[in-house]
UniProtKB/TrEMBL annotation:
Protein name: MFS family permease
Example GO molecular function: transmembrane transporter activity
Major facilitator superfamily (MFS) profile domain span: 10-407
Signal peptide: none
Keyword Phosphoprotein belongs to the record: no
Record's keyword terms, sorted: Membrane, Transmembrane, Transmembrane helix, Transport
Gene Ontology CC annotation, any one: membrane
Amino acid sequence: MTQTINRSALFNASCFALITTAFSFSISAGTLKQLGDDLGYSAENLGYLNSLWFFGFPIAMIIGGLIYHSIGPKKIMKIAFLSHFVGAALTLFAIYFVSESSFVLLLASNLLMGIGCGCTEAACNPMIADMYTGEKMNKMLNRFHMWFPGGIFVGALLSELMSSLGFSWQSQFWLIPIPALIYAFLFNGKTFPKASVEQASSLSANFKAMITPLFLFIFACMALTAITEFGPQKWTGLIMESSGAKPMLILALTTGLMAVLRFFGGPVTKALGQTGVLLCGAIISTIGIYLFSTQTGAMVYVAAIFFAMGVAFFWPTMIGFVAAKIPKSGALGMSIIGGVGMFSTAIFQPFIGGWIDSDIAEQKALGLTGAELDLAAGQATLSTMMTFPIILIVAFIVLFLWQKGKAPSGALAH
């Protein structure tokens, strides 16, 4: 059966599916301010649009993870393509044919795009694990996950190039369906590996392992690490437009550096340990957001380097921590931790939008206008966002002391 599986085609298709996820993130982040200005939406309205993407993602990821063994990756990826393609089509329709229903269409399109992205994670992670074994599996999973920051990097550069060539911000959304069509073509007609049935009978043990102080502590920390990473990135275009640096270049620099750092994540974690990586990440990301909130011009790119160094290892290390320290939670435990990260990011989007609106009103009352108003309000909002990593510094000091000297309980292959 394995001889009939074109692993290379399936893997490449998976990477293009993750690039679709990344494009939907970077293009919407880079055009957020223009969309709000042209369609007359407040920052809080834009926050609700962002939140639907982040809600759809974990819902699909968790449900897809639960049904993977019963329906297999092929059907889940069909749902992913349908969601990606229809979501992109609704976005294009809403921004080209503006009407009173545009906001509702954009809400629906963001939800569908999020569902497509969550289905991609739910199907491709275990599918790659089913196609490869041992060190080869770990290597291919790492290469797969590089394409989220890597895809954002490519999407941000393409967006910046299109803007410099005079293309409208609306035209940049046409980039999103391109990788979706490519992965649909690569998946078409291919034989998929059969879904493994490992741990299918241990859901009760998984849930029991999740009702423990350590898992609940990591659950709460994941909510803060995710918003620390995705909060500033998702609002880059709106917050940083008046900083004297190009927002899409900031996003490209951040995500490009994150992709490179994740490639070398193994040696870093071996040197510092998982809790050491998390604590250092919280400290460095606090410095990065502080620099974002105080600097302008070329120094904003320096801030982006610090920010990328701080958040690069958060997501994989949090998932890996659960695998190593709470192995009985199984694949479901890792899915739940990933899901809470996206749910947290969704919940905070309208709050961030509200902070921006409030800071704009406050700075306007002080007599600021134009670019000065936008810069002051954006930096004030970033100062508020510093709260997340500051709390994490305290939390990860506690975790470091809690886990000091404790050996892993035994890690799952992932």
